[in-house]
Structures are given as C-alpha cells and as structure tokens.
# Entry
Amino acid sequence: MKIRRYIPDLFSLKTAWRDARSQYKSLALYSSGIIAGVTALVAILSFRSDVLLTVNEQARELLGADLEIRQNQPYGEKITAFIDSIGGEQSTSIEFSSMVVYGETGETRLSQIRAIEGGFPFYGTLKTAPAQAAYEYQQNRSALVDRPIMNQLGLSVGDSIRVGNEKLPISGTILEIPGESAAFSLIGPRVIIPREVVEGTSLLERGSRVRYKSYFQFEPDRDIDALVSGLRPLAREHQVRYETVESRKQDFSQIVDNLSRFLGMIGFVALLLGGLGVASAIYVYIKRKSTTVATLRCLGASSRQTTSIFATQVVLLGIFGASIGSLFGLLVQRYLPGLFTDFLPFEIVQQVSPAALMLGFGTGVVISVGFALLPLLSINKIPPLLTLKNIDFSPLDHITSRTKLTGSVFTVFFITGTLALLLQSLTAAFFFTIGLILSVALLMATANLLIRVVRAIRLRSLPYVWRQGIANLFRPNNQTSILVTTLGMGMLLIGILYLSQDMILQRIDFQTGDSQPNLVLYDIQSDQNDDILRMVEEEGAEILQNVPIVTMRLSHRNGQPIREVRDDTTLDIGRWALSREYRVTYRDALTEAETITQGEWIGQADGIDSVVPISINDAIANDLKISVGDSLTFDVQGIPVETTIASIRDVDFQRPEPNFFVLFPAGVLESAPQFYATVIRTEGETGAADLQQAVVREHPNISAIDIGLVLESVQQFLDKVAMAVQFMALFSIITGLIVLASAIAISRFQRIREAVLLRTIGALRSQIRGIQLLEYLFLGTLACFAGLILSVGSAWLLSIFYFDLPFAPNLSALSIAAVLIVLLTLLVGFLNMRGILNKKPLEVLRLETG
Amino acid sequence: MNKQNSILQTENLTKTYRNGEKSLTVLDNINFTVEPGISCAIVGPSGSGKTTLLGLCAGLDQPSSGRIILKGHQLNELNEDELAAVRNRHIGFVFQTFQLMPTLTAIENVMVPLELRGERYQHVYQRALELLESVGLADRIGHYPTQLSGGEQQRVGIARAYINNPDILFADEPTGNLDTETGKQIEETLFELNRSQGTTLIIVTHDLELAEQCDRVIRLKSGQIAGDNYTGFREAEALNLASEHEN
# Structure
C-alpha cells in the first residue's frame, strides 16, 4: 500500500510528541512566522465575506430602487412611452456638476447636483441632520448639502446656497446617501435639490453634462428580468443605460473582490515571508537534530520513521501557527472595517466565515509545510556515522540537485495554486508568483551583498564591542540573510507604496511651477468668452490657454454607418468609442502634451467641404480599430464632416490643461457652435477663489476646477487608500519581527554560550549587552537599507517608465519608517536578551554535555 | 576458527576517502573474524582508523571495497533501511558522547529500540525499568539527560544498548568522557552485562587497561592490522563460548 508509506507509525508519532514536549516553547516560536501572514489573510478574506454578505442583504439599498434607467440627454418619445408603460412607483432625478455659491461669503465649489422628484430612495434612508429634512426638502424648495463642505465652510442649516440663478435655503446636512460611500464627497460636494428648481437655475441650457435618471419601485412579485429583457433592445437603440439590484450587486461585488484580492496579495506576501522564516528555522532545527536522527538510525529507525517524526512535528507546528493566526485574523476582522469606513456605502454586518477561515488556515498550513519540505527531505540523508564522528551536517548540501529542483518546483506550484485560489485567476497567480520570486531573490541578493560589504569592512580600528557585534552576524547557523530579507520586504512594501503615492501627487502638483496653471474654467459659451478673458485680466491672472471645444458624434467609420459597425460582431468595437459624444478642439499646432507616433500632423485644412486631415489619440485609434489613412465621418451638430486619419498621437492626459482624443486642424470648425475652456494661472493665495467667485457671480453656468482643491482631494483619497495598504504591509514587518524572535530563540543556546565564555574571560555585562544590541542594530539597519535600496530602485523605474517625472524621492518620511523598524528590531533583541546575562557559566557547561 | 561460527567477519575491507583528485586510505585490506560471545578491543593511535572500522562493522558506513558479514548479513549489499533493521535486531551501541536524545527521559531513551519494533508498551516499559534498575538508575527514570551526570548518562546508554538483547554490542570509547572512577564503574557494568547476556562486545578504545580486560585485542596502525592477540585464558573461554553458541 503506497499510501501507508506516508502515514507515520505509532513509534514516529510517540517520538514526535516526546521530542516536542520539552521544547514546545521554542518549537511554537518556529511556526509563529506564519501567524502574522495567516492573521492578515483570514482578516481580509473574512472582511471580504462580510462585505459580500452585507451587499447581499442590503442589495436594494445599494441602488435605492428596483430599477434605474438613465440617459445623458432628455428621454425621447419611445423611452418616455416605455417608462410610462411599466408602472410601479417612480421617481426621477437630474444630475450634473455645476458651480455652487455657498453661504453669504460667496465661496464657490464645483459640486455634484442631484435634482430629485419623488420618493427616491425607495430602499434605504437618505440620512440628514435634521432627519426630517430628507422628507421635506422637495416641499420646502430647499437644499440638502454634504457634511464635509458644511463643516469646511462653517455653514449651518438656515444658510443658503446659489445654484445657477436659484438661491435656496439649506434645510439639512447630508450624512449618508444609500449606495454611496463617504469618499464620493472627495469628487465634489454633493447637493440635493428639488427637481422643480432646476429650470430656474438656467444651468441645463448651457453646455452642462447632464444625466437624466428614473428610479422604479415595483411590487415584490414583479419579474424584473422579464422587464429588463423588454428594455434591452430599446436601451441599445437609444443609448440608454439601466441597472437592476442584481447588476449593481455584481458591480459592487466585483469592486470588493478586486480590493480584497489586492489586499489579500499583500497579506499573502507576509505569509510567504513567514514561510521563508519557517524554512530557515526548520533548516537550523534539522541541523541541530542531526545527531538525534543519527542515533535513531543507529538504533534501527528506518528513514521513513525518522522523517515521519520531524514531518509530524512540522505539520503540527503549521497547524498550530495557522490556528493562532486564524484566531488573530478573526480579531483583526472586527477592526478592519474601520479602515474602509469612507469607501463603503453601508455598515458592515460581521460574522465568522467558515470558508474564509478554512482558506486562510489551509493556506497557512500548506505554506509552512511546503517551505519546510526541503529541510525535511534532507533527514533521510543524515548518516548514522554522525554518532561516532563530529561532522558538520548541512541539510541542503546532502540533497541532490534533482530533489532540490523537484522540491522547489513543488513549492512554487503550491504557491501558485494557493494564489490562484485566492485570486481566482491562474494567470494573475502565475505572474504574481514570478514577480514575488523575483523580488524575494532581488532582496536576498541585495541582503547578501550588504552583508558581504559589512563583513569586508570590519575595520580593525573599530572598538572590540563593535567588531564582535558585527562578527555575530556571521556566526555558524546564522539566519542573517533570511532576517534581512523578511524585515527588508516590509520596508520594501512601505517604501514603494510611499514613493508611488508621492509621485502621483507630484504628477498633479502643478502649483509649484511658475508657469503652471492652477485654475481651469470650462463650459464657457462663445458669447461669454470675451467677458471671461476680460475678467481674468482684471483679476491680474494670466491666461495660459483658451481652447475652443466643439461637440460631435461619429456617424460613419470607413464609410459604414455606426449602427452597422456596432452590430457587426466580427469587428468587436467597444460601444463607448462608437456612441460617445466627442469633444473636439482645433488648432494649427501641437501642444507640449502631444507627440505624433504615426503619420503626419497637418495643421491647416481647406474647410468643411473637403476631407479633413485629423489627428487622433492612440488609445481611441485602438478602440475604434483604425489607423492612418482610414476615414471617420462626424456629425457636427447636424452637419456631416468627412475626415481622414492623418496622424496618430500620444497625449499626456495627466496634465491639467484640456486634452483631446480628436484634434482638428485650423480652418474647419471655426464657425461651428462651440464653447471654451480657459486655463489660468492666478497670483496670490486667494487669487483662484476670488476669480471663481467673480466668474460664477456673472456666469453661473461656467464651471471651475481649482487644481489646489483637486490636489487636496486626491491627497486625502490616497491617504485613505494608503492607510489600508500600509496596515496590510505592517503584517510583513510583524512577520519579520516574529521571524527575528524565532531566530534569536534558535540561536539562544549559542548566544548564552558566547556570553558565558566572554564573562569567563572578563567581559563586563555592559560589553556583552553592547555586543548583542549592536548585532540587532546592524541587522535592522541592513534590512531597512536593503528594502530602501530596492524601493528607491523600483520607484526610479516607475518614475521613468510610468510617471515620466524627474526622480526626486522624498526620503525623510521613509527614514522615519526605517528608524522605527530598526528600533523594533532592537526591542525584540533586547527582550530576548534578558535571561542570557543571568546564566551561570557552570550551568551552561553542564548543558553543553547534554 | 570456523568462519561459519563467526558473528562478525571482514574480508579485504578497505575504506578510502576521496577529495577531488586526492585520496586517503583510512583502512587498508582489513581481515578478521569475531567469535560469538567474546569481548574484543580495537586499539590504536589517533587516526589509525579505529572508529572508521567500528562504523563499517556496525553498518553505519559503506566500505570502498571488501565485505562485512554480520550475523550472516552481508552489510555492504544492504540499503540504508535494511541496515537499520539489522542494527535494530542484532546490534547495540554505546557511544563516547552518550548520544541520548535530550528531549526524552531516561526510561524513554532506553525504550526506543524496542518501541521501534512496535512491541507492546507495557512490556517495553517493564524491560527498560529492569535494565535501568540493573545499572543502578531505578530512581532516575523520569530525568532528562541534562539532569543526569556523565556517568549516569552513560549507564542509560548501556541500558539502551542492551534492551534489544543484541547479539553484538559496539562501544566507541565508552569511558572516554568520564573520570577514572566513573569509567571503572561503566567498564564493570559493560562486562557484567556482556557476560550475563552472552553478547559479543566490540570496544574501540585508547585505554589499554580497558583493552586488556577483553578476550581479544586488535591493534590498528595506519589503517592496517598491526596485531591481533587473544589472552590465553580468554582464548580458551572464547572458543568454549563459540561452541556453546553453535549448539
């Protein structure tokens, strides 16, 4: 029976237990490396399960209705007829962005306006302070205003706002909108007004992007699926979008899945680091046990029995570590929602998820056993001759390259398989594993290089305590390389995270440069443009760009009507690119943000009657599956304009000035109906706010993007995201510290012997303490240095290939993190050192003979 | 002597260690036969190959060439696990550094060889207890090796070596780590058990006094047998024992 070969016999089980019994503390520490990883994993998986459970339970509150229909223009006859025919309780809203003047001081903000009529939300509660405001604002013709802007501008109920030409009293503060998280406020303050006041604002007439929505509540037995299948062809024909409770649930679940997978991966990194720690600890453990194994072999134990003894211990340790980790995970699960409060549109229902527990626990066991495999395989290579001769047995040296390769492949297979289960994608798991192996290998290589450098510069002129402290890093059976790698990985994760965040902010921080804009005005109508230019000049601000914008839609692609192109499944072109409204500009030259990648830029054309040579962005060229020489016909507000693709260009959309997918040459669109966007640089601290207020007072339809405020919002958003990610990265550091503690425990006897020897030959306690603390200081510093080098290297590559920024890493905040990690390393070392100094030399010598 | 009656026999035994192109012959063409029930000392200066010879005879290592036959088993033809089974059934060991498992108590250490055979716990425990009593450690059965003196540890080692009623017992410098007086007590215990259990005893030692107590002394020098002597009285006794075994 082959299976029997792998089941330990009674002797092996008994000996495994007897052997472990007297050293359970240090054995438990060996396996504790995986505790932090399993904690992270169970917490994230349970959190995910909680969110999905909540989504399931509160799915209708997410949408606030049974069905939502929306269109970017007022409904046509057919849609209106359909809406009238389906019955149910109905509510409508018009949503758009517009400048709002807040309070008496006249502060302005680009805000998200929702003009509602009827009982939306049908499910869930629109929470306001006072609570009745949510029910009365439509009758009172008053506004509900987002809490953050109320707090920020010191507004209170009873103050007023102006939306377009309408002045409305604030009757309540918005605390919570069903289906929306608090992070929505970062896009712009949310303002709810009664739909009937929209007409009086005069905002809808002048270029605003508007979304018309209808919400429906049906009887519980209404077949929504049947209703939706009736709506589908209509929606396709008229570019109407719709959402049901089920589709919203799926969308949300997808987002939650993506988030939890990402965080789960960071948790998994911690677990793998723990696995490395376990592998290293088991390696040293097997090495230490080699004479015991040799004795057992002398006494007649078979290789299966000796391997079984230690394999049983390793499996039980894995189970122990994973169990403790799972328990901690459940504890962290309770506090994790606090990190995501602003991103979740509901309060999370918490419960223990057996699936999450099983997956986290199973992964922990598999990883700890998988990583211990190679040292375990070396057990049957331990020669019984070790009982007679004092030979140094290094477990891995006795394993054949083939076994090592098989073991490694098996471990990688384990990791990829587990990851695939977590990520539900084999491809993602494969690439993540490759990336992970590469980064661990790089980190190990960097760690080894640094260790060598330190070893090489063990200067003779250094005091003895320093030299001995450094020498301790290289004692036999040292785990310096693994420790530097695990602690370094925590530093690497935090470093990359921080530097990327810094670069994202730098990328959009255009306030610092003298010639950079800080305010963009858009939706300026032709008849308002001159006035705006005058006002800007009067405020002493500088106009950097004044760009005309013409809206148009595609009517033909290479002579084929767009409707046919859409229906042609062989072409497989995204609906968005075919049916969207294109906002196009025209000029005779390219800007700094544009680079031609194919074809030739033609800056001047011969008018609307000949074929116009245009330039399109490479992304939209891909979406439309066209290249240089192909033709597109645009419907420019009723007039067909035939164009040919003269060039394809790369556009840096991250710059604050308006950029365009489609660029016309001068000489074609000058007489078409158009509006303007103006890019401005204002002077002084209040320049941007003053100009916005002046513009909105005169022309309420014009919207302004204050880049300073955008930057602030992005920073806030990134800070919130970073906090969640940093929290997960923390587990890597905790793993590193646990692995450190276990490594110290493994070498404890050796450390005691060294200390005793030093004391015997006259070393002071302070000297011994100094030597040990210096060892930990070097260890922590090396780890942080290795992590820093790699994170700065990765950030440098990111700055070149992704952010396209001059690389100027801000290392001061990272240095604080590094110092903290070093201090934690010292603390762990210090705590472990306590008993060592009190050992009596005789006691130690006696132990040695055992 | 008739080779059929031997318990241990080596034929042209050679052990060479290779390190790259260099090779070092530690044992060179060793031939001897050991009769059942006798005590035999292997002596010689450091580096003469004593421990290597013991390792080969006990199946702890494989020869470069030649044959070792122990209790009818040709050791050089067996794999590691077959060798382990032979050791468990026929061999006992006493080591210079005791080699007790530090995590097991005295009695648990003694029980290991029989537990490996899967024998009933109660029986094994009883037998281990008797042996520990016979070496004077009845009151120390629950102690861990670190709680025992060197002499006590070696007596636990001896009890362990005898628990499987071995046909042959290999002892590697059994008194090497002990003071003279304790060493004497250990020697007495070893020979006493050798006589009472009829076990063949092979001792590797530097200690000529100890060697002289044996029936036979094999002297090694530079990997070769430089002398092989029986004490007269012992020789006759050995031959008697051999014939008893035969019967």
